[in-house]
Amino acid sequence: MIQAIKKGRTIIFIVFLLFIWELIVQFAQIPQWLLPAPSAIIIEAVQSYKAFLPHVFASVQLALLGLAIGIIFGLSVAVLLHRSAMIRELFYPILIVSQNVPVLVLAPLLIIWFGFGLLPKLIIICLVCFFPIVIAAMDGFRQTSPELKHYFEMIGATKAQTFWKLEWPYAYPAIFSGIKIAATYSVMGAVIAEWLGAKKGIGVYMTLAQSSFRTDRVFMAIFAIVLLSLLLFSGIRVLEKLVVKGRGLHAEHSRHS
Amino acid sequence: MLNIQGIHKSFGSLQVINNLSFEVKEGEFVAIIGPSGSGKSTLFQLIGGISTLDGGAILLDEEDIQLKRGTIGYMPQQPCLLPWRTILENVTIVEELQQQPHIEQAQAWLEKVGLAQFENAYPNALSGGMQQRVSFIRAIVSDKPILCLDEPFSALDEFTRLEMQAWLLSIWEQHRKSILFVTHNIEEALFLADRILVLTKRPATIKEEMIVPFERPRSEGIRHSAKFYALKQQLFNYLKEEKDDAYVD
């Protein structure tokens, strides 16, 4: 009940901000190519959604595919780094340092190496997605309670059994935290990837809109990106509720709302 | 049954266990009490096979179990239930590590101790005392020749602890599985055990051995008998001597 009221408040506040925006644009008579009013953006959205939707689907497809590969790749790396001290010592510092290289500067390189096809785009999304997953999963594995680990030793579990039956499920809430962050990044990654060259996608739509000074369409694309990220985020939350069982408290902690 | 033969254990220059020997016979309930930090948990790590012996031997049914894990049934201080598994899945975990678990047998045990209704519940739905009951059933269902209980009730409140002692006693008196029970609660040891071993302070060895004279099946009533008080006082004095010595050091 209280939560519903709070959510209602947030929505009312957002509507209020949009209203202020509308007022400022109307009164200051800002030209539409500079900053369109929310009403103009909505009208444009209603008029041109048919042309816009295929771009959205293309981006969603790209983002989901990239996210899926990022999750698989990220979890594999996390498991490897966690289970082998030698690999961890060698690669963990490199992994951290590599995150200081902005993905945007890598993009031209990826295009030189792999062309304009699907591969360089997936690599970009994968690069932005996998890091939060690796870090979250490794933290989750490490935080396994020492009492439970000791118990597993006492009942004669092998290293592999301790990992797959204890540390791996123990890390679920942490892993889902990582995936939620990665999911929001994946949409951004997809748009960036599309800027570099694609036939379809929100990124392409934005570039076209921008070069013809259709600022209203740029905003439409931005809202679409925000909406998609939120949708993905809540989709993963639903999945989390299905997978993470018996841990009301932990699940509560790992929520980002 | 379980034979501890003159074992030694040190961590670096710190000698924790010195020439400790005792035996737990088939169907016997043995309690070990000792001052805190007297190496009780080290003893369990040695029996559980996760720590190496510096000398001596540990035999279970004539077989050397040094560094052999998973040969004993174990119940730790904390319930250590896995939150993502149902009660039934938790109870069968030990068997699951080695073979196909006997689900029916586990169900029968839960039924017997009145936990059947929680079979498909997750541990967070159970109180601390209930979780410890599940933990004990898990140790029994693991189907090992001996159960090692490591201060199993020390994290519970006083009332739940008394309840759990009576519960454990009633189950044990029906089944008579060998139990090695570590505790720092004198009354608990007296109420439950056939025999009590008092450890010295570090390095631990056997200070005294007491055969508990109460008949079985025991009732709550014995807690209030004069004999119970006298034995309790005697054990208390043994422990106090060790404590005093420790201060002199």
UniProtKB/TrEMBL annotation, chain A:
<feature type="transmembrane region" description="Helical">
    <location>
        <begin position="90"/>
        <end position="116"/>
    </location>
</feature>
<dbReference type="InterPro" id="IPR035906">
    <property type="entry name" value="MetI-like_sf"/>
</dbReference>
<protein>
    <submittedName>
        <fullName>ABC-type nitrate/sulfonate/bicarbonate transport system permease component</fullName>
    </submittedName>
</protein>
<keyword id="KW-1003">Cell membrane</keyword>
<feature type="transmembrane region" description="Helical">
    <location>
        <begin position="174"/>
        <end position="198"/>
    </location>
</feature>
<keyword id="KW-0812">Transmembrane</keyword>
<feature type="domain" description="ABC transmembrane type-1">
    <location>
        <begin position="56"/>
        <end position="240"/>
    </location>
</feature>
<comment type="similarity">
    <text>Belongs to the binding-protein-dependent transport system permease family.</text>
</comment>
<feature type="transmembrane region" description="Helical">
    <location>
        <begin position="12"/>
        <end position="35"/>
    </location>
</feature>
<dbReference type="InterPro" id="IPR000515">
    <property type="entry name" value="MetI-like"/>
</dbReference>
<feature type="transmembrane region" description="Helical">
    <location>
        <begin position="218"/>
        <end position="239"/>
    </location>
</feature>
<feature type="transmembrane region" description="Helical">
    <location>
        <begin position="55"/>
        <end position="81"/>
    </location>
</feature>
<dbReference type="Pfam" id="PF00528">
    <property type="entry name" value="BPD_transp_1"/>
</dbReference>
<keyword id="KW-1133">Transmembrane helix</keyword>
<keyword id="KW-0472">Membrane</keyword>
<keyword id="KW-0813">Transport</keyword>
<feature type="transmembrane region" description="Helical">
    <location>
        <begin position="122"/>
        <end position="141"/>
    </location>
</feature>
Automatic annotation (TrEMBL), chain B:
<dbReference type="GO" id="GO:0005524">
    <property type="term" value="F:ATP binding"/>
</dbReference>
<dbReference type="InterPro" id="IPR027417">
    <property type="entry name" value="P-loop_NTPase"/>
</dbReference>
<keyword id="KW-0547">Nucleotide-binding</keyword>
<dbReference type="InterPro" id="IPR050166">
    <property type="entry name" value="ABC_transporter_ATP-bind"/>
</dbReference>
<keyword id="KW-0813">Transport</keyword>
<feature type="domain" description="ABC transporter">
    <location>
        <begin position="2"/>
        <end position="226"/>
    </location>
</feature>
<dbReference type="Pfam" id="PF00005">
    <property type="entry name" value="ABC_tran"/>
</dbReference>
<dbReference type="InterPro" id="IPR003593">
    <property type="entry name" value="AAA+_ATPase"/>
</dbReference>
<dbReference type="InterPro" id="IPR017871">
    <property type="entry name" value="ABC_transporter-like_CS"/>
</dbReference>
<keyword id="KW-0067">ATP-binding</keyword>
<protein>
    <submittedName>
        <fullName>Hydroxymethylpyrimidine transport system ATP-binding protein</fullName>
    </submittedName>
</protein>
<dbReference type="InterPro" id="IPR003439">
    <property type="entry name" value="ABC_transporter-like_ATP-bd"/>
</dbReference>
